[in-house]
Amino acid sequence: ESVVLEAEGVSKHFPVRRGARALLGGERRAVHAVDDVSLRLRRGSVTALVGESGSGKSTVARLLAQLHPATAGEIRLDGRPVRAGRGRAFRAYCRHVQLIFQDPFASLNPVHTVRYHLTRALRIHGRAGSGAAELEKALAALLERVQLTPASRYLDAFPHELSGGQRQRVAIARAMAADPRVLLADEPVSMLDVSIRLGVLNLLRDLKERLDLAILYITHDIASARYFADETLVMYAGRMVEGGDSETVTQRPAHPYTRLLLASAPDPDRVTGSSGDGGTGEGGEGGGDPADPSASEPPSLISPPDGCRFHPRCPLAMERCRDRTPPRFDLDGGQWAACWLYDTSPDVPAPGDARTA
Ligand code: ATP
Ligand code: SF4
Ligand code: MG
After folding, report:
1. Does ligand 2 have an atom closer than 6 angstroms to the CB of 253?
2. ipTM of this complex prediction, to 2 decimal places
3. In what order do the strands lie in the sheet with 97-100?
4. Which ligand is nearest to the CA of 16?
5. Which atom of ligand 1 is least distant from the CA of 56?
């Protein structure tokens, strides 16, 4: 199988601080940031993780990158469960699974040059070679890989001397210094100018193809997932609600939340930065209308709704949606949705139903 990185039933609950707990009536409570999430990242494939702000996307990335310990569940690289610690296997895991962030400015140290950042990363991963000539060659190769050429033009630059797109390319080069197998890209283009987003996404796609990388592409923008990702996963309030190949999920969404997300998605031309030729401008500015039902608040993750977490906002909610969490139901072509609408089994009484024979 081509699965490189796999998460199964992974949860992350952040305890609520004591001060805040007092406000909540003194109860011991936790933010259920991620609940029972499973996913697989494949070699040479981009998987998009889509969801609105606060749905738990970055927490998933940080769990996969081992920046947080999971509250429950298991993460496996090549089928082997990862255990945090100082062992060799853990170091290898951290080398193979690299994370890049939304804001390349914040992730690069302003007082250091590109050369410093990349040299340090190469050294940490034992890939700096021996001697100055080999190091110079490795640095040039890294910059070439992210299409910053000639290297001499960038190596001695400081972060503030580069454009946003160039900075993100340096951050990607730094991640590539580890020679990783998995790249977790947390909103890698959302802070960049629309006009240069496409270039950075195309670079990631090029890396995926040339190096057989597995990429997790985190975004709140489902239209870009369709353009860029092979598979798309949708998250809502800490849970995974739908998945499948990107074409299917974006053209024939199954979960009511995915439909809502698509209905309120901005014009795809704006996302990819290609201006297209269509738009006469008519009605084109409607995205993000506060009157849109999708603009209503996502639920609190301190006491998330019982049952399907989407039920308070779902136009199709049924009785059982209120108290029973929907499992994944498989649909055609590898698509699945965690929604009771797709339950084809004969009606089974809910546990605790008084009429149970
Ligand atoms: P965005 O699109 O805004 O980046 P996201 O989908 O990445 O959102 P997360 O950052 O994963 O969402 O946050 C999910 C939930 O977990 C939020 O309610 C957030 O407040 C909470 N959370 C995240 N990190 C912590 C932390 N270290 N301590 C406590 N709560 C946290
Ligand atoms: Fe709506 Fe019920 Fe499906 Fe949840 S399980 S999305 S509430 S129909
Ligand atoms: Mg985030």
Report:
1. no
2. 0.98
3. 97-100, 182-186, 214-219, 45-50, 231-236, 239-245, 336-337, 329-330
4. 1
5. 11
Strands 231-236 vs 336-337: parallel, antiparallel or unpaired? unpaired
Strands 182-186 and 214-219, how do they pair? Answer: parallel
Does 79 map to a domain? yes
Q: Are strands 329-330 and 231-236 parallel, antiparallel or unpaired?
A: unpaired
| Cβ-contact 64, 7 below 8 angstroms | yes
**Nearest ligand atom owner, CA of 31:** 1
Closest atom of ligand 2 to CA, residue 340: 5
CB environment 204-231: b (16+ within 10 A), e (fewer)? bbebbeeeebbbbbbbbbbbbbbbbbbb
Strand partners, 14: 31
Cβ contact 320:230 at 8 Å: no
* 218 CA closest ligand 1 atom index: 7
Specify the CATH number for the domain of residue 37. 3.40.50.300
What is this structure's pTM?
0.88
* Nearest Cα residue to atom 1 of ligand 1: 53
Residue of 239, 306, 323, 340 to mutate, ligand 2, most atoms within 8 A of C-beta: 340
Which residues constitute the domain of residue 101?
3-109+181-276+290-342
Write out pLDDT tens, residues 264-316.
876 555 444 443 333 333 333 333 343 444 556 777 788 888 999 999 999 99
Q: How far is the CA of 332 from the centre of ligand 1 (A)?
A: 32
